[in-house]
Amino acid sequence: MTTFPVHSSETAPEASKPILAATQEKFGFVPNLIRVFAEAPAVAETYTTVMGIFEGSSLSDAEKQTVLLSVSFANECDYCMAAHTTIAGMKDVRAEIIEALRSGTTLPDTKLDALAVLTRSVVETRGWPTEVAKDGFFAAGYGTREYQEMIVGVALKTLSNYVNHAADAPLDAEFEAAKWAA
How many Cβ atoms sit within 10 Å of the Cβ of residue 125? Predict the structure, then answer.
């Protein structure tokens, strides 16, 4: 079995060191999955760049976390579910919303539920969501801008979910309380 390295700032390729330093500065620690990304500087740079773009989208913090948790749920990524559960809590996403996202059940907020349903449908159908999911999304008050921004979140989380599926990054102590399994 191939083991993916979990780099430190000392062992990472030179091109990844500034990304690890910026992550440390931003979060106060470097999550293990980012340490795995460091092996391939193009992946580390892509992830952090697209995350910055997604963070700048018109979606609210709750909507962004709904997208990221919905993708991670659909892709059964235990690491990303734990990480984004923790982040969602830090972003003041209501506990009952987070719990519904973690269990794949109906969210107690109809607008966020429409977003979660569409996001999971996009992932499960490889970009060809059901008409019911699309209609529910637009009926909830979202537009084509938010649809496209949701796709950015899908691309971002698909990258991290797939790398984690290959690497099986060890869960950070910071995310341990939110441990999740499909």
Answer: 11
CATH number at residue 79: 1.20.1290.10
Domain that holds residue 30: 8-103+152-182
What is the per-residue pLDDT across 77-98, written as a single tens digit (0 to 9) for each?
Answer: 999 999 999 999 999 999 999 9
Of 99, 107, 101, 33, the residue nearest 67 (C-alpha): 101
Cα separation of the two ends of the chain: 22
pLDDT in tens, 105-158: 999 999 999 999 999 999 999 999 999 999 999 999 999 999 999 999 999 999
Q: Is-contact 137 122, C-beta < 8 A?
A: no
94, part of any domain? yes
Per DSSP, the three-state class of 11 is: coil
The whole-model pTM stands at: 0.97
Give the H or E element holding residue 78.
helix 78-90
Distance between CA atoms of residues 161 and 141, nearest Å: 29
What is the Rg, in whole angstroms, of the alpha carbon atoms belonging to the chain?
16
Q: Is residue 29 part of a domain?
A: yes
